[in-house]
Design a protein that fits this description.
The protein starts with a strand and ends in a 30-residue tail after the last helix. The protein is built from 18 helices and 18 strands. It has helices at 18-34, 59-78, 144-147, 170-173, 177-182, 207-222, 285-303, 317-330, 347-360, 370-380, 384-406, 416-421, 443-459, 468-472, 492-504, 509-514, 519-531, 533-537; strands at 4-10, 39-41, 85-93, 115-123, 126-132, 156-159, 162-168, 194-199, 226-230, 232-235, 238-241, 245-247, 253-256, 263-269, 309-312, 335-339, 363-366, 409-410. Helix 8 crosses helix 13. Strands 5-4-3-2-1-14 form a 6-stranded mixed β-sheet. The chain has a 6-stranded mixed β-sheet with strand order 6-7-8-9-12-13. Strands 17-16-15-18 form a 4-stranded parallel β-sheet, sandwiched between helices. It is elongated and about 85 Å long. Strand 1 (4-10), helix 1 and strand 2 (39-41) form a beta-alpha-beta unit.
């Protein structure tokens, strides 16, 4: 028996772009064929993009997706590539044919026909087999149990004399089910030669090792290598990091793709011995998070038809890091930074903003806000916090006006710590816009990422993009004389520790006090977080990088009278 050459196509798809995603499948299959591959595997729901959410409920969309799958099979055959086995993810219909020769259309989509998360096997010009995902996740960012019908059968296909079992993402996260069924021998006494897993697994810090450990368990369970192919790219508030890999039957990783980039991982499954292929290097944790933010913003900009972004640059660390992420995502020449000084803005802040733009090669503009603030004050005569918020909101108006005039996507530089505590003026330059690259990055990590990015530049012999003073000076909104963030908040290192316990670990006041936090700090932080839900609900989407991000992961009512007991 000859070796089986397999290609894992780690691709960046777009939800709803059936034509574009189909073209991507054809292109990568041709590349894999040129490399000698006999089996090409694509991630979960490649053809439709992922997650498709309620698009799955539209029968018209499901029919179009089925037509696209059949068309891909026919086009490959017409190009002389019909002998290659292609496995890809799409949407199915529970009442549709699943078996060999299913070139006919999907069922019409009657109320009795429910959508399924499907993998199809294309060969010899037709859809030869299909598999529907069994375990439908209904936690965190996932809402599949509400949308899809579960599969009930296993699918094992023969490729060049090898038995290849197919599973989709969550099916290997849960014990039992299709993997357990495929671990048993068939009637002829044959087991699997390969377990192929199609994935749309979103990024969160530290998840890479969880995936490989899990795949290792399944490899030992089925006594066969596991090939894990994952999506890559940004889709709204999710980032897919790729990192596709192959384990041998003992669970050792023997081949892997790089993270956060498209890749075609070509490897060999020998007739005897362990599979083998190229290995990608591991990333530093700060590089992982930074690249996730870059990938999320790049995907949002490109897939929504924008070419440039616009943000307010204050000279502070948040806007400096956000602008740098934007420059890395789409090029500094496509970043517009607007300095909007008030009478309270320090000279060093204005200088730092200008220096940042120069380092990034960004379009830098200065628009003082004093004349506009004075016009409002002439009518309203605001004082105190109302006057401070007026200044902040005038900046938001300026950015949206420029965006409307010139077509830039406004991005918000606010971070997770500010969003958690509500320490941001709603509709200001820090919270307004279409996307927020640092939405899931707390303030302490903002400084770490800025340091990492500057050090990376030094290592490459480049000028660090972020001015040193933007990193070292005390953070301030500069809305009144001598203002600093710590006038209103605990020190950020302490604040972020309390926020992590209260938000990500859902600990109450009693648990926080048991950790040793000061009661005054706990009461202040808990109160601020609970009061700010309405602000978070109106905040732009941003890339999820932690285990629990605001938005899909954490859903609390705005109208809510529950408060942690304060005695």
């Amino acid at each position: 028996m000859a070796d089986l050459r397999v290609a894992l196509a780690q691709v960046d798809t777009c939800v709803g772009d059936l034509d574009g995603n189909a073209a991507l499948v054809l292109e990568r299959t041709r590349e894999a064929a040129a490399a000698g591959a006999q089996l090409v595997a694509f991630p979960e729901m490649t053809l439709t993009g992922y997650p498709i959410e309620d698009l799955a409920l539209r029968a018209s969309f499901r029919r179009a997706a089925w037509d696209a799958a059949a068309d891909i099979a026919a086009r490959l055959a017409a190009d002389g590539l019909g002998g290659i086995t292609v496995v890809l993810g799409t949407v199915g219909t529970s009442g549709a044919p699943r078996g060999a020769g299913a070139a006919e259309r999907e069922a019409s989509g009657s109320p009795a026909d429910l959508p399924t998360n499907r993998a199809v096997v294309l060969r010899d010009g037709v859809v030869q087999a299909a598999y529907d995902k069994h375990h439908l996740p209904n936690y965190g960012v996932f809402d599949e149990f509400r949308i899809f019908a579960p599969g009930e059968t296993t699918t094992v296909v023969e490729v060049e004399g090898r038995r290849v079992g197919i599973a989709i993402c969550e099916d290997i996260w849960q014990d039992g089910g299709p993997v357990a069924e495929m671990a048993t021998l068939d009637e002829a006494g044959n087991g699997l030669d390969l377990l192929l897993v199609l994935n749309g697994s979103p990024y969160e810090e530290g998840k890479g090792h969880v995936r490989t450990d899990l795949a290792a368990r399944r490899a030992r369970e089925v006594s066969a290598p596991v090939a894990y192919v994952n999506l890559v790219g940004g889709q709204d508030d999710l980032v897919f990091d790729g990192g596709s890999f192959v384990t041998d039957a003992a669970g050792t990783v023997v081949a892997s793709s790089p993270r956060f980039v498209e890749d075609l991982l070509v490897w060999d499954l020998p007739s005897d011995g362990a599979p083998h292929g190229p290995r990608a290097p591991e990333l530093h944790p700060d590089e992982e998070v930074y690249r996730a933010c870059v990938t999320g913003l790049a995907g949002y900009v490109r897939k929504n038809g924008f070419r440039s972004v616009l943000l307010g640059v204050s000279g502070g660390i948040d806007s400096a890091l956000t602008a740098t992420i934007a420059a890395d995502a789409i090029g500094g020449e496509n970043v517009v930074g607007v300095s909007m000084p008030s009478r309270y803005s320090s000279d060093h802040s204005k200088d730092d903003a200008a220096d940042l733009a120069k380092r990034l090669g960004a379009d830098y503009r200065v628009q003082p806000i004093a004349p506009m603030v004075e016009a409002f004050q002439g009518e309203l005569a605001l004082e105190g916090v109302a006057e401070e918020n007026l200044q902040a909101r005038v900046r938001g108006v300026i950015l949206m006006a420029i965006s409307n005039r010139e077509g830039h996507l406004v991005i918000a530089p606010g971070n997770k710590s500010e969003l958690a505590t509500g320490y941001a003026t709603i509709y200001d330059a820090g919270s307004i816009g279409g996307f927020a690259p640092l939405k899931d990055v707390d303030k302490s990590r903002v400084w770490q990422l800025a340091r990492w990015r500057n050090n990376q530049a030094v290592d490459r012999g480049e000028i660090p993009p972020i001015p040193e003073s933007s990193i070292t000076k005390p953070p301030s909104a500069e809305l009144r004389p001598g203002q600093t963030d710590q006038d209103s908040l605990p020190p950020y290192d302490l604040l972020d520790e309390v926020l992590d316990a209260y938000i990500e670990h859902a600990e109450g006041r009693a648990e926080l006090l048991a950790r040793g936090f000061d009661p005054e700090v706990v009461d202040k932080v808990v109160t601020l977080v609970d009061r700010a839900e309405w602000k978070r609900r109106q905040y732009p989407p941003g890339p999820k990088v932690t285990a629990l991000a605001f938005g899909r992961d954490r859903r609390l009512p705005i109208t809510n009278r529950w408060r942690e007991p304060l005695d």
